[in-house]
Amino acid sequence: MSSRDQEIEIGLLPVPAVLFPGGQLRLIASKAYHQDLIRDCLREGQGLGLVLAEKRADGNLLFGQRAGTRGRSHPEIATIGTYCQITDFDQNEAGQLEVVIKAEQKLVIVDAFEASNGGLRAECRLLAPEPAIPIGPEDELLIGILEDLLAHPSIAKEARQSTYAHAAELGGRLVELLPIKNSVRQRFLEISDPLTRLTRIEKMLDQLQSEEG
Predict the structure, then answer these.
(1) Are 49 and 13 in contact (CB under 8 A)?
(2) What is the DSSP string of the chain?
(3) Which of 79, 97, 145, 180 could be 184's S-S partner, Cβ–Cβ 3.0 to 4.6 Å?
(4) Are the C-beta atoms of residues 177 and 149 closer than 8 Å to each other?
(5) In terms of pLDDT, which residue wins out, 198 or 71?
(6) 54 within 8 A of 184, measured Cβ to Cβ
(7) Count of other CB atoms within 10 angstroms of residue 31
(8) In 10 A of CB 162, how many CB atoms?
(9) pLDDT tens, residue by residue, 130-187
(10) How confident is the model at residue 93 (pLDDT cuts 50, 70, 90)?
């Protein structure tokens, strides 16, 4: 992708998750239009847009008419998400299609609308990458926290393969793995400066520690 903002039309995958550029996630394509989207992406060599859609208490996605969305009701989605590529796919033991996606770049949804198969498509603006600021000694505490998270047995293999050589990557991996609400993850995704994100992560961790104490 170019460093300049671009506008494209892609299929959207609303999920109760937030993924930062460089992050990887394994998903089950449970609905027919999800499978159509995966098939089309693989056939055309195009990516998809991953956007946050929150879950209700019963585990189902919240549905409602989002401003700027044309067509029938769909999950209430965030305006900022990530452009992702499918890196692997397979059928699990239950016969479901599982895919691994990797986020490449942040995007802004300009206009979302219903596709002919009932899924969501959107006109999106791909955002220029955040500045590549190397991590340093001042980030030692956050690096240690991330390494502890990555070593936890519950962390998926896809997440362990992620890199964190720069401030944007360090902040992204932390936000993906810390036990925080998706709404908080989304707010961190919407920050455009990686150093500001790291500072706010440190403040959040200090606040959580003081509350536990």
Answers:
(1) yes
(2) --SS-EEEEEEEEEES----TT-EEEEEE-SHHHHHHHHHHHHHT--EEEEEB-B-TTSSBPEE--TTEESS-EE-B-SEEEEEEEEEEEE-TTS-EEEEEEEEEEEEEEEEEE-TTS-EEEEEEEPPPPP--B--GGGHHHHHHHHHHHHSTTS-HHHHT---SBHHHHHHHHHHHSS--HHHHHHHHT---HHHHHHHHHHHHHHHHHHH-
(3) 180
(4) yes
(5) 198
(6) no
(7) 12
(8) 19
(9) 999 999 999 999 999 999 999 999 988 888 877 889 999 999 999 999 999 999 999 9
(10) confident
Residue 211: φ, ψ to 5°: -70, -35
Q: What is the pTM of this model?
A: 0.86
41 vs 25: CA distance, rounded Å: 16
Q: Report the DSSP beta bridge partners of residue 88.
A: 100
Contact present, 103 and 83 (Cβ < 8 Å) = yes
